[in-house]
Amino acid sequence: MPKKEKEVLLDVKDLRVEFGRRKKDKFVAVKDVSFNIYKGETFGLVGESGSGKTTIGRAIIRLNETAGGDIIFDGKKINGKISKELDKEVTRRIQMIFQDPMASLNERAKVEYIISEGLYNLKNYKNDAERKAKVEKAVLDVGLLPEFLSRFPHEFSGGQRQRIGVARALIMEPDLIIADEPISALDVSIRAQVLNLMSDLQKEKGLTYLFIAHDLSVVRFITDRVAVIHKGRIVEMAETEKLYEHPLHPYTRALFSAIPLPDPRLERSKKLEIYDPSVHNYEKEPPRWVEIEPEHYVLANDREIEIYLKRLEKYRRG
Known about the structure:
The chain has two domains: 8-246, Rossmann fold (3-Layer(aba) Sandwich), CATH 3.40.50; 247-318, no CATH class. The protein has helices at residues 53-60, 84-93, 111-122, 128-141, 158-170, 188-205, 216-222, 240-245, 250-257, 264-269, 302-317; strands at residues 8-19, 27-38, 42-46, 68-73, 76-77, 94-97, 176-180, 208-213, 225-230, 233-239, 288-293, 296-300. By secondary structure, the chain is an alpha/beta fold. The protein has eleven helices and twelve strands.
């Protein structure tokens, strides 16, 4: 049976995001980043704090202006100046779940209004009865009770507040959800519940996720493919298991070597790798984005590609 061709929902090409108006104050937060996300998959974006992960997510949802490159969503360019109709379409079809469930909810508004806000903005309902029915369904979908709708955010736990954030995104019936560290502010016991909820909703509603995180063990559990970002540039990208089994770029290797192991003896004896940027000699030969094996990309120059290919060969031989 022939393999079904994957359908690209989001295509990011040479994305560049800068902050600061004047030349001397200008800071390049994202440098020529390219990746695509297939329909129905969970794509992970990982890296340290300040690496540019959230900036990319906010650029896709049009909260950050782009200085260069293209963001193509379902065949249409959505960055820069776009028509009102397309802006409305993007607002409905791409939603974001924010990192801090407390800061992202309006403390003075009741839950019913918070979840309805997107519907109000886009007039996406025929009458009040339909709006209320949509809100109740969204609340039930995330495992909360309709009687919670008359309460304020401060009356809920962190996990419940994040569920309200998920319901607020779901009610718009989006195709793509950008989940920006959706569990990092939650207790460990609640994290699995929220992840399982997101996974169940994805299967049920055919959702596509861009999952932004720095918790690498969680990323391995929930994603199909992963891109590793360092100082605004993606340095490596592959299918999740492939990347975790044999990372090639020194930064990816250092990042993955810091993942805690459940066995205390193995944890004590494991060897941490420290990333030293001086290992790259890019003065004479700058790096380029290379497909080193099928669906496995790395940022490297010719000398490094040779090293990585030898490492792959050694890995395959076992």
